[in-house]
Design brief:
single chain; HIT family, subunit A; 5 strands; alpha+beta; globular; five-stranded antiparallel β-sheet; 3 helices
Length: about 140
Protein backbone atom coordinates (compact mmCIF):
# COMPACT_ATOMS: atom_id res chain seq x y z
CA UNK A 1 0.00 0.00 0.00
CA UNK A 2 1.30 3.42 -0.92
CA UNK A 3 1.16 6.26 1.61
CA UNK A 4 1.83 9.88 0.71
CA UNK A 5 3.43 10.65 4.10
CA UNK A 6 5.57 7.49 4.03
CA UNK A 7 6.71 8.07 0.44
CA UNK A 8 7.20 11.87 0.47
CA UNK A 9 8.37 14.51 2.95
CA UNK A 10 4.99 16.26 2.92
CA UNK A 11 6.54 19.73 2.71
CA UNK A 12 9.66 21.68 3.60
CA UNK A 13 11.49 19.92 6.41
CA UNK A 14 12.09 22.16 9.45
CA UNK A 15 13.08 19.56 12.05
CA UNK A 16 13.20 15.80 12.54
CA UNK A 17 14.38 13.06 14.84
CA UNK A 18 14.07 9.28 14.66
CA UNK A 19 10.38 9.42 15.61
CA UNK A 20 8.77 12.32 13.76
CA UNK A 21 9.33 15.36 11.57
CA UNK A 22 7.96 18.88 11.36
CA UNK A 23 7.31 20.30 7.93
CA UNK A 24 6.20 23.67 6.61
CA UNK A 25 3.29 22.78 4.36
CA UNK A 26 2.77 24.32 0.95
CA UNK A 27 -0.46 26.12 1.85
CA UNK A 28 -0.28 29.55 0.15
CA UNK A 29 -3.45 30.80 1.89
CA UNK A 30 -2.00 29.94 5.30
CA UNK A 31 1.71 30.73 5.67
CA UNK A 32 3.20 28.99 8.68
CA UNK A 33 0.91 25.94 8.35
CA UNK A 34 2.93 23.16 10.01
CA UNK A 35 2.48 19.42 10.11
CA UNK A 36 4.01 17.15 12.74
CA UNK A 37 4.26 13.76 11.07
CA UNK A 38 5.01 10.41 12.72
CA UNK A 39 7.73 8.58 10.78
CA UNK A 40 6.17 5.15 11.27
CA UNK A 41 2.94 4.42 9.46
CA UNK A 42 0.29 4.42 12.17
CA UNK A 43 -3.26 5.70 11.87
CA UNK A 44 -4.25 6.79 15.36
CA UNK A 45 -2.71 8.23 18.52
CA UNK A 46 -3.74 5.09 20.39
CA UNK A 47 -1.64 3.00 17.97
CA UNK A 48 1.38 4.54 19.75
CA UNK A 49 2.82 3.48 23.08
CA UNK A 50 2.05 6.03 25.83
CA UNK A 51 5.64 7.32 25.89
CA UNK A 52 5.54 7.84 22.12
CA UNK A 53 2.24 9.73 22.42
CA UNK A 54 3.87 12.01 24.97
CA UNK A 55 6.91 12.51 22.74
CA UNK A 56 4.74 13.38 19.74
CA UNK A 57 2.69 15.87 21.73
CA UNK A 58 5.86 17.58 23.01
CA UNK A 59 6.72 18.25 19.36
CA UNK A 60 3.18 19.52 18.66
CA UNK A 61 3.42 21.89 21.66
CA UNK A 62 6.85 23.09 20.49
CA UNK A 63 5.47 23.71 16.99
CA UNK A 64 2.64 25.79 18.47
CA UNK A 65 5.09 27.73 20.65
CA UNK A 66 7.36 28.40 17.66
CA UNK A 67 4.43 29.72 15.62
CA UNK A 68 3.36 31.99 18.45
CA UNK A 69 6.91 33.28 18.87
CA UNK A 70 7.60 33.89 15.18
CA UNK A 71 4.19 34.87 13.80
CA UNK A 72 2.10 36.06 16.80
CA UNK A 73 -1.16 34.61 15.41
CA UNK A 74 -4.56 35.53 16.81
CA UNK A 75 -5.21 31.80 17.35
CA UNK A 76 -3.54 28.46 16.68
CA UNK A 77 -5.62 25.54 15.40
CA UNK A 78 -4.54 21.97 16.18
CA UNK A 79 -6.04 19.00 14.38
CA UNK A 80 -5.21 15.35 13.77
CA UNK A 81 -7.67 14.41 11.06
CA UNK A 82 -6.11 11.92 8.66
CA UNK A 83 -9.33 11.22 6.77
CA UNK A 84 -7.63 11.65 3.39
CA UNK A 85 -4.16 10.44 4.39
CA UNK A 86 -4.55 7.86 7.19
CA UNK A 87 -1.01 8.36 8.52
CA UNK A 88 -0.74 10.00 11.95
CA UNK A 89 0.02 13.70 11.60
CA UNK A 90 -0.98 16.87 13.41
CA UNK A 91 -1.86 20.13 11.70
CA UNK A 92 -0.56 23.16 13.61
CA UNK A 93 -2.07 26.20 11.91
CA UNK A 94 -1.54 29.87 12.76
CA UNK A 95 -4.79 31.78 12.31
CA UNK A 96 -5.23 35.49 11.81
CA UNK A 97 -8.37 37.63 11.80
CA UNK A 98 -7.46 38.68 8.24
CA UNK A 99 -6.62 35.23 6.84
CA UNK A 100 -8.72 34.03 3.89
CA UNK A 101 -11.01 31.74 5.90
CA UNK A 102 -11.15 33.20 9.44
CA UNK A 103 -13.20 32.51 11.51
CA UNK A 104 -14.05 29.39 9.49
CA UNK A 105 -11.82 26.33 9.36
CA UNK A 106 -9.02 26.60 6.82
CA UNK A 107 -11.04 24.24 4.60
CA UNK A 108 -14.24 26.24 5.10
CA UNK A 109 -15.87 29.01 3.14
CA UNK A 110 -13.46 31.67 1.94
CA UNK A 111 -14.10 35.12 3.47
CA UNK A 112 -11.24 37.13 1.91
CA UNK A 113 -8.83 36.82 -0.99
CA UNK A 114 -5.36 37.70 0.28
CA UNK A 115 -3.44 35.56 2.79
CA UNK A 116 -2.03 37.08 5.94
CA UNK A 117 1.49 38.33 5.10
CA UNK A 118 4.31 36.02 6.12
CA UNK A 119 7.46 37.35 7.75
CA UNK A 120 10.66 37.27 5.72
CA UNK A 121 12.66 34.04 6.01
CA UNK A 122 9.71 32.35 7.74
CA UNK A 123 11.15 28.84 7.27
CA UNK A 124 14.49 29.66 8.91
CA UNK A 125 12.86 31.56 11.77
CA UNK A 126 10.41 28.72 12.47
CA UNK A 127 13.16 26.07 12.30
CA UNK A 128 15.33 28.00 14.78
CA UNK A 129 12.46 28.66 17.17
CA UNK A 130 11.28 25.06 16.97
CA UNK A 131 14.78 23.79 17.78
CA UNK A 132 14.96 26.10 20.82
CA UNK A 133 11.55 24.97 22.13
CA UNK A 134 12.42 21.30 21.67
CA UNK A 135 15.78 21.75 23.42
CA UNK A 136 13.94 23.31 26.37
CA UNK A 137 11.46 20.42 26.41
CA UNK A 138 14.34 17.90 26.55
CA UNK A 139 15.99 19.80 29.42
CA UNK A 140 12.83 19.85 31.50
CA UNK A 141 11.98 16.23 30.79
Amino acid sequence: MSCLLCDESGGQLLWQDDFCRVILADEPDHPGFLRVIAKDHVKEMTDLAPADRDALMRVVWAAEAALREVMAPDKVNLAALGNVVPHLHWHVIPRFADDPHFPNAVWGERKRQAPHPAPADLDARLAASLSRWLARARETG
